[in-house]
Design brief:
The complex is a heterodimer of chains A (195) and B (805). Chain A is of the alpha+beta class. Helices cover 44% and strands 9% of the residues of chain A. In chain A, α1 runs antiparallel to α2, α2 runs antiparallel to α3 and α3 packs across α4. Chain B is of the alpha/beta class and 805 residues long. In chain B, 28% of the residues lie in helices and 20% in strands. Chain B is globular, with a radius of gyration of 28 Å. Classes of the chains: A alpha+beta (195), B alpha/beta (805). Bound molecules: iron/sulfur cluster (2 copies) and FE2/S2 (inorganic) cluster (2 copies).
Chain lengths: 195, 805
């Protein structure tokens, strides 16, 4: 299982430098790990614990509090179908069942080709547009079964690549990366040391 | 979640905390259910209410840990500016004039409501739960619960108990998420290996995958869990609380002397629980002390006395054995006089045991005696101005010059860790290798074995240290950090430290970190070497040189405990006769001519003295194994067989004799010990450290300097014969810095040969980043290639070569 890459360790150290206590950098670094591998692996958690000087159990405890962190590989597209009350009243269960049939998997699992994961989630604050779902946290409102099928077809064909980045992508444009520092002639380490 | 503490990198917080504050002696007057009560400022409403006699049900609150308000069971009504309001009493500090009501209908409703909610997911499997009968949830559901639940849905289900360590099992269905265990691991033990994971309905206590809760203190979580969610393997399904019989006692596994409750059922010890006393253990125990009761019922215990016959040691009657022992004493006295007899031991028994043996030695005129075998410090260290544990844990400065307290005196480690974490104290550590307290140390002065005096000079020359020393009392925790460094060198280093502290104008006192259970009691009660007679090592040397007609081992096991194994071996071979008093046949007692079976801890009454000089009671809870007898009785009977009536008819006679004959123990009467749960402090007569010189030469570049230190779990007899603990010993290994491993050119775990001046041993080589370069650390008493073979007690330090096989 993967630890953080050297480039990501540099970024992690830069993030740690922003806080008075290293431990405070935990969440951003967990995102970094998820961006790297698509999920937060046990080795990554161990590695993060080392970087922050805390125990793996503390990393694990914090990470598992947040639904957005995944602990095993998920599909390129994570589809969250809301089944809370408003959506439920407007056909969310049926939509979920349809999605399961269409993709041939149960909620909570991933298609064999690694493209899609379906999750059954609580209210995603789009009650006025029920039934709602998210694909990698991008909303789709008042979803009919036909629209769902179309969505899947588009995603498979890469038609929505601009709008919906693959799961785990933190930011498509990083403001300051080791590469940027290199452009300005500063080393990453100098950046860290400067703090 | 508890507040975390800020890393003390700049130390500003300590400064603030140690400013002399005007002590707020004042109490606050609050009214609890109509009765006025004087509460301590800073205490919580729950403390005041309970102290005032109004019980408030609670689960998460624990007086020794930060309140977190997790369970909401402790609601009370407090009058506020806008009339009565409901508050969680464990999170509400007392205030002057506060009016608290714990018994209103409103409070009752809240208590019932919270209990009903806590029971929603609780499996109610009390009939098969170890906690049933002593369970706060069960008890409080009866006393403060609604009686009936409205919940008819499916309860949450988890796999029933899962092991979270070698000793502890977790049943997540029973857990009420009170955060006591996790808070303990974090705040008290500093081993954050368990944590709440997930959230909402899925919240559970868990370890990181494949990283068990292997804390030295894990048993405490089992004791403080308010439900049966955490159980410890040595006690699981052994007894029901109502079948347990218990007495307050004191742990004598190490010299911290934690107060305990020993519990038995059907004449078998099944559990020890920590007793909360302010001056010593605050309710905590280490796992070694908590679970080694198993050794007392071990099948390997000696059940009868043994006498060497044609075919080795053979069981015999007490009359036969005592007669044989008396004959050996008489023969020795006749052929060599009292100077040809040496007595070692006393540190493993009670005060009464040591005192009776010392009395017998006095009667016989035997001066060669010691409770230590070169594994401690000179007795005089007890006569230095003595600090208590509480003094140390409140001193602005603690100087550590001794063993790894986490490994040797675990609950003392907890107290000092607490002092550092709560910013009462700054720790200055002088040691050759990293210890459990290193990460809490304010400053560390590492030194090459043998060169401690240099670290002392460096520390005292440090301007920040000098400023720090001026802030108030300094407590030096003094012991033997490295058994491969001679006692002379350790003494000289300590002396130079104390001189330096005096020179710096510091007001210092010493907390002796001698390890064995009652070593302080034994030394204070007559088992210390008499003046001019030489200590334990001299006794062994005399035996090795054939000058001893008789060596008496009173629970002493030089083969295991003397750092110099070769000396111990030669001593046992060279003594013409050996009489051993022991609970087990050890590597030493199996060489004896007469072995007198001794009653163990938990099988005899008496008192014990901890490292502070605090005397507290130990009790007989179960019948002694076989025909074994307490050491004091054996001494008395042997005395009678030799025509010396020591005058002891019962253990109480011995306790009384100690109080009347030993000035330091004048206050240690039976009533005083029985009345004071905190024990009774004694003071040894003032003494000065004997002159000692440290003359460790320079190390040549090919050699590694040897550090031999103990770990909590080793092959010590009480641990090795406790099945739950025996396999926790880390096993034999030599540890070097990772760069030195490269230099040796082998991969970690490869067996190498450590070649010393007198012998060599084969051990697997591993890395430990806290071991400085040029040093090799070997754990003492781990079985395998005995590192004691390399140690020569007469040389200041030991250098070894590491050779590939
Ligand atoms: S296991 Fe016990 S101590 Fe730990 S949170 Fe659950 S109920 Fe509390
Ligand atoms: S610290 Fe020492 S006295 Fe306390 S429980 Fe552990 S072994 Fe016993
Ligand atoms: S219930 Fe589905 S978004 Fe709120
Ligand atoms: S005891 Fe006060 S909230 Fe748990």
């Amino acid at each position: 299982m993967p630890r953080l890459t050297d480039a990501n360790v540099t970024i992690a150290k830069e993030i740690i430098g922003r806080y008075p206590r290293p431990k405070s950098a935990l969440i951003p670094i967990l995102h970094l790990a998820q961006e790297q591998d698509g999920y937060v692996s046990e080795d990554a958690m161990r590695h993060i614990a080392e970087l922050l000087g805390i125990t793996p159990a503390e990393v694990y405890g914090t990470a598992t509090f947040y639904e957005m962190f995944k602990f095993e590989p998920v599909g390129r597209y994570c589809i969250n179908v809301c089944t809370n009350i408003s959506c439920q009243l407007l056909g969310a269960w049926e939509l979920l069942e349809h999605a399961e049939h269409h993709l041939g998997i149960k909620a909570g699992s991933t298609t064999d080709d690694g493209m899609f994961t379906i999750e059954d989630v609580e209210c995603i604050a789009a009650c006025t547009e029920a039934p709602a779902l998210q694909v990698n946290y991008r909303y789709r409102y008042r979803v009919t079964h036909a629209e769902f099928d179309l969505l899947i077809a588009d995603l498979r064909a890469g038609g929505l690549a601009d709008e919906i980045p693959p799961h785990g992508t933190l930011a498509r444009v990083r403001q300051r990366t080791p590469q940027n520092w290199a452009d300005t002639g500063r080393t990453a380490q100098a950046e860290v040391d400067a703090r | 979640m508890s507040d975390e503490t800020i890393d003390d990198t700049d130390g500003t917080d300590v400064d603030a905390a140690t400013e002399p504050e005007p002590e707020p002696k004042r109490t606050l007057t609050v009214t609890v259910d109509g009765r006025p009560f004087e509460a301590q400022p800073g205490s919580m409403v729950i403390d005041a209410a309970i102290a005032a006699g109004s019980y408030v049900p609670h689960f998460c609150y624990h007086p020794r840990m930060t309140p977190v308000g997790m369970c909401r069971q402790c609601f009370v009504e407090v009058d506020g500016p806008r009339g009565p309001m409901m508050v969680v009493s464990c999170m509400t500090p007392v205030a002057e004039g506060q009016v608290v009501r714990t018994d209103t209908p409103q409070v009752k409703r809240a208590q019932e409501g919270v209990l009903e909610l806590l029971l929603v997911n609780h499996p109610l499997d009390c009939p098969v739960c170890d906690k049933g009968g002593e369970c706060p949830l069960q008890d409080q559901a009866f006393s403060h619960g609604p009686g009936e639940s409205r919940f008819v849905e499916q309860k949450r289900h988890w796999e029933k108990p899962i092991p979270i360590s070698d000793l502890v099992f977790l049943d997540r269905e029973r857990c009420i998420q009170c955060d006591r265990c996790t808070r303990f691991a974090d705040e008290v033990a500093g081993d954050k290996l368990i944590h709440f994971i997930s959230r909402g309905n899925d919240t559970q206590v868990m370890t990181f995958p494949d990283e068990p809760f292997s804390s030295y203190f894990s048993g405490n979580t089992v004791q403080i869990c308010p439900v049966g969610a955490l159980t410890a393997s040595p006690y699981r399904f052994k007894a029901r609380p109502w079948d347990l019989d218990q007495r307050a006692s004191t742990c004598t596994t190490c010299s911290v002397g934690c107060r305990t409750v020993v519990q038995s059922t059907r004449d078998e010890l099944v559990r020890y629980q920590g007793l909360d006393v302010e001056s010593v253990n605050w309710g905590w125990l280490c796992d070694r002390g908590r679970f080694n009761f198993e050794s007392i019922g071990s099948d390997d215990r000696l059940t009868t006395p043994l006498v060497r016959g044609e075919s080795g040691l053979e069981p015999t009657s007490w009359t036969g054995a005592l007669g044989a022992a008396a004959r050996l004493v008489t023969e020795a006295l006749e052929s060599g006089g009292p100077r040809s007899i040496g007595i070692l031991g006393g540190a493993r028994g009670t005060n009464e045991d040591a005192f009776a043996w010392a009395a017998l030695a006095d009667a016989l005129g035997v001066t060669l005696r010691d409770a230590q075998v070169g594994d401690g410090l000179p007795t005089e260290v007890l006569g230095l101005p003595r600090a208590t544990i509480t003094d140390a844990a409140n001193a602005p400065t603690i100087v550590l010059l001794g063993p790894d307290l986490k490994e040797e005196l675990p609950v003392l480690y907890l107290r000092l860790r607490d002092a550092a974490e709560k910013r009462r104290s700054r720790i200055v550590e002088l040691s050759s290798v990293g210890t459990g307290l290193s990460r809490y140390a304010w400053k560390r002065f590492p030194y090459e074995p043998g060169l401690g005096a240099q670290a002392v000079s460096a520390a005292l020359a440090d301007p920040e240290v000098r400023d720090q020393l001026a802030r108030g009392p300094v407590v030096v925790v003094a012991g033997r950090g490295n058994l491969a460094e001679s006692q002379e060198v350790a003494t000289a280093t300590l002396a130079s430290l104390l001189d330096g502290l005096t020179g710096a104008g510091a007001s210092w006192s010493v907390l002796p970190a001698l390890r064995r259970g009652n070593v302080v009691g034994a030394l204070q009660l007559g088992m210390a070497p008499s003046e001019g007679a030489g200590g334990g090592l001299d006794v062994l040397r005399a035996a090795a040189e054939g000058r001893l007609e008789l060596l008496v081992l009173v629970g002493s096991d030089p083969m295991a405990d003397c750092p110099d194994t070769d000396l111990a071996r030669r001593a046992l071979a060279g003594a013409r006769r050996i009489v051993a008093v022991d609970t087990f046949l050890t590597a030493s007692s199996e060489q004896a001519d007469v072995v007198l079976a001794a009653a163990a801890y938990g099988e005899k009454d008496g008192t014990t003295t901890n490292l502070e000089g605090r005397v507290s009671g130990v009790v007989a809870k179960v019948t002694a194994t076989g025909t074994s007898r307490p050491d004091w009785m054996i001494a008395t009977e042997l005395g009678l067989a030799l025509g010396h009536d020591l005058g002891f008819g019962s253990v109480d006679d011995v306790t009384d004799a100690i109080a009347t004959r030993v000035p330091a123990y004048a206050g240690v009467t039976r009533t005083a010990v029985a009345r004071n749960v905190e024990g009774v402090l004694t003071e040894a007569p003032l003494a000065f450290l004997p002159p000692a010189s440290s003359s460790a030469g320079e190390r040549n570049n090919y050699d590694y300097r040897l550090v031999v230190s103990r770990t909590l779990y080793d092959r010590a007899v009480g641990t090795a014969t406790s099945p739950s603990l025996a396999h926790l010993a880390p096993g034999p290994a030599a540890l070097v810095h990772p760069l030195d491993l490269e230099l040796v050119g082998v991969s970690a775990g490869t067996e190498v040969q450590l070649v010393g001046a007198r012998s060599s041993v084969v051990l697997p080589l591993h890395t430990d980043a806290t071991v400085p370069r040029g040093t090799v650390r070997v754990r003492f008493q781990q079985g395998g290639g005995s590192v004691g073979e390399l140690v020569d007690a007469s040389t200041p330090i030991v250098d070894v070569r590491i050779e590939r096989l």
